[in-house]
Design a protein that fits this description.
With 295 residues, the chain is of the alpha/beta class. Helix 5 (112-118) packs across helix 9 and helix 8 crosses helix 9. It has helices at residues 38-48, 63-68, 73-81, 85-92, 112-118, 120-123, 143-154, 214-221, 232-241, 261-273, 276-288; strands at 7-11, 32-33, 36-37, 53-58, 101-105, 128-131, 135-138, 157-163, 173-181, 184-192, 203-211, 246-250, 254-257. The strands form three sheets. Strands 5-4-1-6-11-8-12-10-9 form a nine-stranded mixed sheet, sandwiched between helices. A two-stranded antiparallel sheet has the order 2-3. Strands 7-13 form a two-stranded antiparallel ribbon. It has one domain (7-288): Spore Coat Polysaccharide Biosynthesis Protein SpsA, Chain A. The N and C termini lie far apart (58 Å). The protein binds 1-O-phosphono-alpha-D-glucopyranose.
Length: 295
């Protein structure tokens, strides 16, 4: 049986320029879907999958993110005094155990692969998860938990996979597949952001990974790839060359690309509609606007 996955890396060093001016002073991971910052969705998903150590790869200007995970004793006291028990419960659910979070700085914006590599000493010789908080996945069973369960059977490396339109291939890591077995696909190659005509399939990598420490060694060696950056995709592809297994996992759930404005808005509507206290108002509003009337 493969070793349990208890560590996760959250690459959060990106500047979030697509959301300027908001991201001028607010890290994009703190931007809220309904009432919770993006990073909280990622943390909750990791916890549900059994993650105990949370490693954030950050950069300059991400102080608000570190503050978010501090305890807030004054606020707690105030809520307790006012007997706002529901809010107190919500606040406490964001508390992290002392020592469970580590912050590592990525000093240069050299890409996702480089960000993951920056955490190598904290990972050591264990399998680890990577969660990209921009990819928010609504699912009955959280995506990483689905993957951890599948990984207990397969070992090796696993990436979340989803079909995309051919013209979108150039936005993703794309999988070259050799075997299909239900939700699992065996991967024989991977290519980062290919042109539509060069994509080996229509299965794209979505931001959830379970990786073996050998990937970190490949990251030590690889050169810059797509976009002049050190690509995680290239390091995983090297592990296939080194005869280690890589699986794509077709997760159950709906993925939102919260790195784009349109994806963020869609997620906001969808998560709003899934909240008992909001859905009636929101639905009434959506009905009241004539969506077919392209003003
Ligand atoms: C990253 C990865 C890419 C993956 C994507 C999923 O790209 O490099 O392989 O398909 O996340 O969201 P980014 O969106 O950071 O450019």
């Amino acid at each position: 049986m493969p070793k349990k996955v208890t560590k996760a890396i959250f690459p959060v060093a990106g500047m979030g320029t697509r959301f300027l001016p908001a991201t001028k002073s607010v890290p994009k991971e703190i931007m809220t879907l309904v009432d919770r910052p993006l990073i909280q969705y990622a943390i909750d998903e990791a916890r549900a999958a059994g993650i105990k150590e949370f490693i954030f790869v950050t950069s300059r200007g991400k102080g608000a993110l570190e503050d978010y995970f501090d305890l807030a004793p004054q606020l707690e006291q105030e809520l307790r005094k006012k007997k706002k028990t529901e809010l107190l419960k919500i606040l406490k659910s964001t508390n992290m155990e002392s020592g469970a979070i580590a912050y590592i700085r990525q000093h240069k914006a050299l890409g996702l692969g480089h960000a993951v590599w920056c955490a190598r000493r904290l990972i050591g010789n264990e399998p680890f998860a990577v969660i990209l908080p921009d990819d928010v996945i609504a699912a009955d069973k959280p995506c990483l938990q689905q993957m951890v369960e599948a990984y207990a059977e397969t070992g090796g490396n696993m990436v979340a996979a989803m079909e995309v339109e051919p013209e979108r291939a150039s936005s993703y890591g794309m999988l070259d597949i050799c075997e299909e077995n239900g939700q699992l696909v065996k991967v024989k190659g991977m290519v980062e952001k290919p042109k539509a005509e060069d994509a080996p399939s229509n299965l794209a990598v979505i931001g959830r990974y379970i990786l073996s420490p050998s990937v970190l060694q490949h990251l030590n060696q690889i050169k810059t790839g797509s976009g002049g950056e050190i690509q995680l995709t290239d390091a995983i592809a090297r592990d296939i060359d080194a005869k280690n297994n890589v699986f794509g996992f077709r997760f159950s759930g709906q993925r939102f690309d919260c790195g784009s404005k349109s994806g963020f808005l869609q997620a906001t509507v969808s998560f709003g509609l899934s909240r008992a206290e909001l859905k009636d108002d929101l639905r009434a509003y959506l009905r009241s606007i004539n969506l077919d009337d392209d003003a």
